[in-house]
Design a protein that fits this description.
Layout lengths: L13 H14 L11 H32 L8 E3 L13 E3 L5 H11 L1 H7 L1 E5 L1 H11 L5 E5 L6 H9 L4 E5 L1 H7 L8 E6 L12 E6 L4 H13 L4 E4 L9 H7 L8 E2 L4 H4 L6 E5 L16 E6 L7 H6 L2 E3 L12 H16 L6
Parallel strand pairs: 2-5, 4-5, 7-8, 7-11, 8-9, 10-11, 10-12
Antiparallel strand pairs: 1-2, 3-6, 4-6
Length: 357
């Protein structure tokens, strides 16, 4: 594209230099500058030819895009298309964003901050290559947007990820822009905008269920879901007063549990459990038989409340039985994530899973 080619110095004048550069780019080679060129002029000519080659590749990408039926589409403001490079992302279709006002970055901020937007759009934000890999192994990345910092785009971890999975959209950002965007103080350099997995509002009622009321700390909630997934619980159900399980902090705490454990969010716990074939237990700090004297085999569900308030009296009264975890009289209660872990461990012991794969 001659109009995109910058000024090229040439002993015979601008016209000859321009024609020579265009011809070289068309041929895919860089001509050797005349011997009487200074080193500075040689460097300027090489830079001009490199920019011209990029312009040709961008034009080729544009033609291919139009042929695929996307004629007339243009990148959003602050978006530049880049070409293959020596980085791990070089073989993938790559988009470069340099403006903080880009629509994609505005979407990322909304998903990081607003549970309402996450529910309305059916999307969430993953932070870190490990979490992205966990999602990709279960659900793929075909509909995902992968966002990388310049530093992360050159890492071996990202190379491994891209060698196994093809994201629907791949974007790189300058490190400074990524740091301002990341939802954590120490950014990993890898973010992904993904679809929230769909779960039936009433999954099959069997196996071991974890029922949560009022667990408002997203870190605690993530740990609970991770523990439940580790013992292959059938599902976890959360009442509306719980934290959003699809917030970035809860997802980091779950470390991939969200993608293997069915999660029923904002559930009416008793309506959900209508017709449940097993017993429903409610945990309480000082009442009921000890955990180790209760039969947790087969189909059963256990209710947990936040350590500050515990369970509502209505839920306690409607449960088939109340159970307690024996603790010292000098301690008021356990952290809810620790209580869930102890109950899950006892369930695992009673089921006889030790030694099995």
């Amino acid at each position: 594209r001659p109009e995109r080619l910058p000024f090229v110095f040439h002993p015979a004048g601008w016209q000859s230099g321009h024609a020579a550069a265009c011809k070289a780019v068309d041929a895919g080679s860089i001509p050797t500058p005349a011997s009487n060129f200074s080193s500075r002029l040689r460097a300027m000519l090489a830079a001009s030819l490199r920019r011209a080659r990029v312009a040709k590749l961008v034009d080729a990408r544009d033609l291919k895009s139009r042929a695929a039926g996307r004629a007339g589409s243009t990148p959003a403001p602050g978006t530049n298309w880049s070409t293959a490079s020596t980085s791990p992302v070089g073989a993938h279709s790559l988009e470069r964003i340099t403006s903080a006002r880009n629509p994609l970055l505005k979407l990322v901020r909304r998903l990081a901050a607003s549970a309402r937007d996450r529910r309305r759009l059916g999307k969430t934000l993953l932070d870190g290559a490990h979490l992205v890999q966990a999602y990709a192994r279960r659900l793929g990345l075909q509909s995902a947007t992968l966002i990388l910092s310049d530093t992360a785009s050159k890492s071996a971890e990202v190379a491994d990820l891209l060698s196994s999975f093809e994201p629907g959209r791949l974007v790189t950002l300058p490190d400074s822009l990524f740091e301002a965007l990341a939802p954590v103080q120490t950014p990993t350099g890898v973010l992904a905008v993904v679809d929230i997995p769909r779960v039936e509002r009433k999954p099959k009622l069997e196996g071991f269920w974890v029922l949560l009321q009022g667990v408002q700390d997203p870190g605690n909630l993530g740990s609970i879901l991770r523990t439940a997934a580790a013992i292959r619980a059938a599902a976890a159900a959360l009442c509306p007063a719980c934290a959003d399980p699809w917030s970035p902090k809860c997802l980091r705490g779950g470390m991939g549990a969200h993608f293997v454990l069915p999660i029923v969010d904002r559930a009416d716990l008793w309506k959900l459990l209508e017709g449940f074939p097993g017993k429903v237990y409610a945990t309480a700090p000082r009442s009921g038989p000890p955990l180790f004297d209760v039969d947790l085999t087969g189909s059963c569900a256990v209710l947990f409340g936040a350590e500050g308030q515990g369970l509502d009296k209505d839920l306690l009264n409607q449960a088939d039985a109340t159970i307690r975890i024996p603790i010292s009289e000098w301690v008021e209660s356990l952290n809810v994530a620790a209580a869930v872990a102890m109950v899950c461990c006892e369930r695992l012991r009673q089921e006889g899973f030790s030694g099995r794969k």
